[in-house]
Amino acid sequence: MSKADSISTIKGIGPATEPFFHKIGVRTVQDLIDYYPRAYTDFSEITPIADIVPGLVTLKAKITKISGRYVRRGMHITEAIAEDSTGSVRLVWFNQPYRAQGTSSDTDYFISGVFELSRQKMVLLNPTTEKVSDLPISTARIIPRYKETKGLKSTQIRKAIREVLPAIAVEQETLPPWMLKKNKLSSRSEATRAMHFPGSMKELNDAKNRLGFEEVFELALASLLNKEEHSHEHALQVPFVESLAKSFVSHLPFELTPDQKRVIWQIYQDMQSDDPMNRLVEGDVGSGKTVVATMAALMVLNQGFQVAFMAPTELLARQHAETIHALLKPLQLEHTVGLLVGSLTSAQKKAAHGHIESGKVSFIVGTHALIQEKVDMKNLGLVIIDEQHRFGVAQRKQLQKKAGHMPHVLSMTATPIPRTLALTLYGELDISIIKTKPKGRKPIETSIVSPNSTKDVYLAIDAEIDQGRQVFVVCPLINDSETLQAVHSVGKVHKDLSLGPFKHRKVGLLHGKLPADEKNAIMQDFVDKKLDILVSTTVIEVGVDVPNATIMLIQSADRFGLAQLHQLRGRVGRSEYQGYCYLVLSDSKAPSKRLQIFERNSDGFKLAELDLELRGPGAIYGTFQHGQLDLRVAKLTDVALIESARNAARDFIKKDEKLVYYKHLADRVNTLRSVTNLN
Ligand code: ADP
Ligand code: MG
User: Fold this and answer.
1) Which fold has domain 242-272+288-413?
2) What is the CATH T-level fold of the domain 445-601, as seen in this structure?
């Protein structure tokens, strides 16, 4: 059997079952081998019948007195007795009429199932049985559970895997021998076998450790190789002019935090070199990243180069353009801030392109439009990407291509991943962290609210408005739909609030379906305090900065993920005023663990870590929005594993190992390089 063979060559997979395997992405023997289980149930311990207690049990027993009958229409029941030398127990199956056939009373069986109460009697309910004389696959061992599809059960997958065990036994090693030895890793073939047929929990854990190590090692290596490649590129050198930085700071209405100062200094040092900067600034919501980015831009503009600033939403791009314009204005530099967003008319766009190409506009703020449109930015010195997790890698590539040379790149994110992980996955990036928030910020008071006790919350909100503060109310959907009756639509919430508890207040409505100029006008009204309450969809999720707003009320909060909730909550608590966040549940059920975690934790870094733990392996997908980067085995919270895999990647390069000698590794790493490559 060759691994490239179609699965139809496997005994037991015929024309009838093959299409189901295709559905789960398994076409070849190799695909099947790589189809790891997603969970396991330990049925390995065999218990004498006299000793069984409720729960999972495996018996080694004879099956006698088996008989089946219909108890009523559509309800078949099979009953039997299992007997070993210590005693007997009842077996019951519902709607499995074939059970009674082919079971012989003088054969020993492994019987695995749950010993539980059924119709007031303790029985083994719907157990799985296999002859002891066969190699058991679904009883008497640690049973792998595969992701199933309609028409394909775990049992069938297990049977197919049993057939390819000989191919697994000769699986080739993918990692260098020194690496296995140093990290005490099992061989690839042994680990793969143990994933599907673990002999013990220890064997299974070793297998996961080995395969998880390999995954993280591949990522780390791809990232390091990218970094090496970048080191040959050239960027425009941006000298540091101290008097200019001082002058900028002297015009700020606040003092920079020590973290802000440190990060700005790191950026200035990066940009003085002609090695392109590739730095990621991780700073929690409200930590003051915009001013850091503006200071970076300052030096670049001063040198006569252009800066492109990309934001994930148009609302945010417009806000940034204004903030940046205001921050730079007192310096009277030769610069113009221009906006390039999707909603401009074609005449406006054409004018904008002209200004960018002629260099009249030196600071270009925009959304995806920046990369989608054919506009030359030959003089581009710096690219700033706000909330970088929002952008696909391909998009970042495009933007950088426009320059013809490598611009310096500064990415900023408020959805941090733990540092060790970031260093591994983004090894090609230098990372700066803004840990502390500006002085005087108070932690936001967060509370979970059941839908029938919103009255008190409304009173509290009203009192805040009396103090001159403003309020965001966020809802998950635009339209009420029948299936999502519990979900409040913005329209309905807006109506209910503005006609009910807040009829004496000014309540605005904002959602993504409104025309862009209307959206901007409403946002502007809110900024200008012409509105007390803004009812909105998640269009305001990221980046929006209205320091006078102190309350964030989230409707159907259970429908949001942790990262999204944290972004939303980050819209308040952006000034010296106390901020509040209310999480209104969509029903009166107990709040989820996720929401409770969120209620208790305000640190974005901590939340990111907890989020990873909650979601388990594969969670990386949500973070990076790229399936190729998905991890199937490694736990991203396993710091020790991640660190040793990262060291292994460094060693690989240090030892001058060549990828060509490791075909499997080379294939993986090259794919990963193309999706993580930032240029
Ligand atoms: P984020 O890191 O979420 O992008 P912003 O850059 O939008 O945060 O800053 C949040 C708010 O904090 C803004 O109103 C900004 O003017 C203000 N701010 C930034 N730095 C400081 C500071 N050092 N002291 C006080 N306020 C600051
Ligand atoms: Mg921001």
Assistant:
1) Rossmann fold (3.40.50)
2) Rossmann fold (3.40.50)
Residue 360 Cα to ligand 1 middle (Å): 29
What is the length of the chain? 679
Ligand 1 and 542: CB distance under 6 A:
no
Q: Give which of 175, 63, 51, 71 is closest to 111, Cα–Cα.
A: 63
State in Å: Cα 602 to ligand 1 middle: 17
For residue 55 the two structure tokens come to 């729960």
pLDDT of residue 174: 96
**pLDDT tops 50 at residue 304:** yes
Burial-class residue 232 by CB neighbours within 10 Å (0-12, 13-18, 19+). Answer: exposed
Closest CA to 214 of 674, 665, 676, 672: 665
CATH fit for domain 45-140, picks 2.40.50.140, 3.40.50.720, 3.40.50.2000, 2.120.10.30? 2.40.50.140
Distance CA 259, CA 289 (A): 10
The C-alpha atoms of residue 498 and residue 266 are separated, in whole angstroms, by: 49
- Determine the pLDDT at residue 278: 84
Could you say which ligand is closest to the alpha carbon of residue 436? 1
Q: Whose CA is nearest to atom 4 of ligand 1?
A: 289
Residue carrying structure tokens 């921050």:
327
437 close to ligand 1 (CB < 6 Angstrom) = no
Nearest to 1 by CA among 38, 39, 30, 41: 30
CB 506, CB 444: distance < 8 Å: no
Instruction: State in Å: Cα 437 to ligand 1 middle.
Output: 8
Q: Ligand 1 pocket, 594 CB below 6 A?
A: no
Least reliable range by pLDDT among 399-408, 482-491, 604-613: 482-491
Number of continuous H segments (helices) and E segments (strands) in the chain: 24, 20
Give the model confidence (pLDDT) of 496-528 as tens digits: 999 999 999 999 999 878 888 898 899 999 999
- Please give the model's pTM, rounded to 2 decimal places: 0.74
For residue 290, give the ligand 1 atom closest to its CA: 6
Predicted confidence band at 465 (pLDDT cuts at 50, 70, 90)? very high
445-601 shares the fold of 242-272+288-413:
yes
Among 252, 280, 291, 388, which is best to mutate for testing ligand 1, by the most ligand atoms less than 8 A from CB? 291
The beta-carbon contacts of 204-210 under 8 Å, at least 24 apart in sequence, are 204/40, 204/142, 208/633, 209/185, 209/641, 210/185, 210/186
Residue 254 beta carbon below 6 angstroms from any ligand 1 atom = yes
Tokens 């980015």 sit at which residue? Answer: 293
Residue 604 CB–ligand 1 contact under 6 Å: no
Q: State how far the alpha carbon of 622 is from the alpha carbons of 159, 195, 216, 426, 477, in Å.
A: 33, 25, 17, 16, 20
The percentage of the chain sitting over the pLDDT mark of 90, rounded to a whole number, equals 56
Distance 282 CA to ligand 2 centre (A): 11
> Atom 10 (ligand 1): residue with closest C-alpha?
286
Give distance in angstroms: CA of 334 to centre of ligand 1. 25
